[in-house]
Design goal:
The protein is α+β, with helices and mostly antiparallel strands and 97 residues long. It is built from 1 helix and 10 strands; from the N terminus they run E-E-E-E-E-E-E-E-E-E-H. The protein is flat and about 40 Å long.
Length: 97
């Protein structure tokens, strides 16, 4: 029998599916909404929310996308316009001079 230490799995994200069709991803260690490879919250109606370490955040688009077409941009929990978001992500991608 192979013995695996339980703390090996404590940082694995947990996927929770609700009876209403909603899906939530959270970090087990911090119990915060968190996902790096897609939205952390997906509602059955098509709404999507991206979270990083418990904060609304998305580097490559809006962190909140509604099924009706509404979109909101967030950078590390801070709400901003699409133009402000583009500037913030451009600064992040720029090499230091």
């Amino acid at each position: 029998m192979i013995s695996v230490p339980l703390d090996l799995f404590e940082n694995i994200k947990s996927r929770v599916e609700c009876v209403n069709g909603a899906v939530f991803y959270r970090d087990r260690a911090t119990d915060q909404l968190h996902r790096t490879d897609g939205p952390a919250v997906i509602y059955a109606n098509g709404d999507h929310y991206w979270f990083l370490h418990g904060q609304l955040h998305r580097a490559d688009g809006p962190a909140m996308e509604y099924a009706n077409g509404g979109r909101w941009w967030y950078w590390h929990g801070q709400h901003m316009t699409e133009q402000e978001h583009a500037a913030a992500t451009a600064r992040k991608a720029s090499p230091l001079l």
